């Protein structure tokens, strides 16, 4: 195995640049929030809530545009049985950002939450918040693992270095600057990384297009030359699967902590919405070079290249079509520059997910569920430890798991089916409670897992209408195996069942307890009868402002070194004046968006 010195130098330069920017951002903002009395732990999680449009737009775009996004898009455009018609990620995630900006960004930011799980714990209690943390954590870890895996594949193709070494070094750099600077380091490095990936790919595309082995991509889009047209098509029997996957990307792309971390760090609710729209545009723009590279791969006579006569799709290397095009269709200096840019940009998503997972654990699990009296310094150290632990978990998964797009869909499944319907309920449906939330969690989990998961070799125990068996080559072992393919949109059906289950069970429980058909003593979750219990809220938390309880009317509380649970959910000092005034007129999550006429 040969080591390409130029490639290693290019990558080293980009990595050092990213590391320098991360450390500089941490140093520049080390005293941010101190003047306003903001906790250091909160500053690490959401900055000083002063992220502007320029940095905010870049960091929100870079969160989605990572290794999985660019490699996966190119892969699906290149694959003969799929093509551009099945490369749903660019439009799916762009629409998810638009919907997030229109409906979710403003209520979340205006209430001053710190993490995505805050409204769940405020309304459903700390135990339910802990349960919802599980799919959220798994989603972040799967996402990080997918993009680190893509990075390893990219480096191994062009530079011929050990995949494991490249993944570990990349992860360590991302973990280091995230440890040092939190969201500020992540946001500022995102600006550099997004610029790198844009320039790196766009420099490579023209050279690949003019390579003698590449035919006119406008011709191969509609005509069969070396393989099926890269524009692709959706067969009639696959229509529901296509719709199911698109809904998964569009709606399942909303309830992610990486998204809400940027929303909650914006300087105002309006800025949070604008950032979402900017990122949606950015996702579409950044997908263009990946689509072109996939089309170039489908239009290439590989027999005329240094790659060899057998095309990548026949070597089960379709998932690496982007680095293969850079390596074999571009001059060496161009391919190395493109590789350096892409590999550096991969970290832009990995660092975000690692920080998001550690933020949710430190705040919603450690602080609010177990150690409400924890000092700010203690929370900061918990965050640092979990950044290292979760980063290590993602790295381990990247080293032992297979295809890029499969991991991407799998991580979205968990979030889409379980968390999205709960987020809809907690923000927009009046009267849901912990009983409905538990039922929704179980409905979504059973219906989704019941459909099976081929990537985990998990057989289905629910056979939805239209199911069939297919012979497929295993993505790791290469052996033929028979799997069950669900042609029914069971992921979306699972999500809808979860949402309806939450509403139905919540109202049923409310009716049974309030009518006396079930004794109040059996309200063991304190979700209906004991509305002001310690599980649902701290003694200083106002669940319903219309039924306001003054602090002086309550039992005195022991002074805390950290913020109170109530202040944790509504940090009024972080909000603009006009937002605070608006909040006075709003009700809690239990009744907001549904004011009585």
Q: State the separation between the terminal residues, measured CA to CA.
A: 73 Å
- Shape descriptor reads globular
Secondary-structure element order, as H and E? HHHHHHHHHHHHHHHHHEEHHH
Q: Looking at CATH, which topology of the largest domain would you report?
A: Sodium/glucose cotransporter
Q: Ranges with pLDDT <50 over ≥5 residues?
A: 532-568, 570-597
* CATH superfamily descriptor of the largest domain: Sodium/glucose cotransporter
- Total DSSP E strands: 2
Kindly provide the name of the CATH class of the largest domain: Mainly Alpha
The total domain count is: 2
Strand content: under 5%
CATH 2nd-level architecture of the largest domain = Up-down Bundle
Alpha-beta content class: mainly alpha
Keywords: Glycoprotein, Ion transport, Membrane, Neurotransmitter biosynthesis, Sodium, Sodium transport, Symport, Transmembrane, Transmembrane helix, Transport
Subunit structure: Homooligomerizes at cell surface. Interacts with SEC14L1; may regulate SLC5A7.
Organism: Haplochromis burtoni (Burton's mouthbrooder)
Pfam families: SSF
């Amino acid at each position: 195995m040969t080591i390409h010195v130029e490639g290693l130098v290019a990558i080293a330069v980009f990595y050092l640049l990213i590391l320098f920017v991360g450390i500089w951002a941490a140093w520049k903002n080390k005293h941010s929030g101190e003047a306003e009395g903001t906790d250091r732990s909160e500053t690490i999680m959401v900055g000083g809530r002063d992220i502007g449009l320029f940095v905010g737009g870049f960091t929100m775009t870079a969160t989605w545009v990572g290794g999985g996004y660019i490699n996966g898009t190119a892969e699906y455009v290149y694959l003969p049985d799929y093509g551009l018609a099945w490369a749903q990620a660019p439009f799916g995630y762009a629409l998810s950002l638009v919907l997030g900006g229109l409906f979710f960004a403003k209520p979340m930011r205006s209430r001053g939450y710190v993490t995505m799980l805050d409204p769940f714990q405020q309304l459903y209690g700390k135990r339910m918040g802990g349960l919802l943390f599980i799919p959220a954590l798994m989603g972040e870890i799967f996402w990080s693992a997918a993009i680190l895996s893509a990075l390893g594949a990219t480096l191994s193709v062009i530079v011929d270095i050990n995949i494991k070494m490249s993944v570990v070094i990349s992860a360590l750099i991302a973990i280091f600057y995230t440890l040092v600077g939190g969201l500020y380091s992540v946001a500022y490095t995102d600006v550099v990384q997004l610029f790198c990936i844009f320039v790196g790919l766009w420099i490579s595309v023209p050279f690949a297009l003019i390579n003698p082995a590449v035919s006119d991509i406008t011709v191969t889009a509609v005509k069969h030359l070396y393989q099926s047209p890269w524009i692709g098509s959706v067969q009639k029997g696959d229509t529901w699967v296509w719709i199911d996957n698109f809904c998964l990307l569009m709606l399942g792309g909303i309830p992610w902590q990486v998204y809400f971390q940027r929303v909650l760090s914006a300087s105002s609710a309006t800025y949070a919405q604008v950032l979402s729209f900017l990122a949606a545009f950015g996702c579409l723009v950044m997908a263009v070079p990946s689509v072109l590279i996939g089309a170039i791969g489908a239009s290439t006579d590989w027999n005329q290249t240094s790659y060899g006569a057998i095309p990548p799709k026949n070597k089960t290397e379709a998932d690496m079509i982007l680095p293969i095009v850079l390596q074999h269709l571009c001059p060496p200096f161009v391919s190395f520059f493109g590789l350096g840019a892409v590999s550096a940009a991969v970290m832009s998503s990995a660092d975000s997910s690692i920080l998001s997972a550690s933020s949710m654990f430190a705040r919603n699990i450690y602080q609010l569920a177990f150690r409400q009296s924890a000092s700010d310094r203690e929370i900061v150290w918990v965050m640092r430890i979990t950044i290292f632990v979760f980063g290590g978990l993602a790295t381990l998964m990247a080293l032992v798991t297979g295809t890029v797009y499969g991991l991407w869909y799998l991580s979205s499944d968990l979030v889409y089916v379980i968390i999205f319907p709960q987020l809809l309920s907690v923000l927009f449906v009046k009267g849901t409670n912990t009983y409905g939330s538990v039922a929704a969690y179980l409905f979504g989990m059973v219906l989704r897992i019941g459909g099976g998961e081929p990537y985990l070799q998990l057989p289905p125990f629910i056979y939805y209408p239209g199911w069939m068996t297919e012979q497929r080559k295993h993505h790791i072992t290469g052996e033929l195996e028979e799997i069950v393919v669900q042609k029914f949109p069971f992921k979306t059906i699972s999500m809808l069942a979860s949402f309806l289950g939450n509403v139905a069970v919540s109202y049923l429980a409310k009716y049974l307890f309030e009518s006396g058909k079930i004794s109040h003593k059996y309200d063991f979750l304190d979700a209906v009868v004991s509305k002001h219990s310690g599980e649902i809220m701290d003694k200083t938390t106002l669940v319903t402002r219309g039924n306001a309880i003054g602090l002086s009317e309550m039992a005195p509380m022991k002074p805390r070194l950290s913020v109170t649970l109530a202040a944790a959910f509504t940090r009024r000092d972080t909000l603009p004046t006009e937002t605070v005034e608006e909040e006075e007129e709003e009700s809690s999550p239990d009744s907001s968006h549904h004011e009585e006429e």
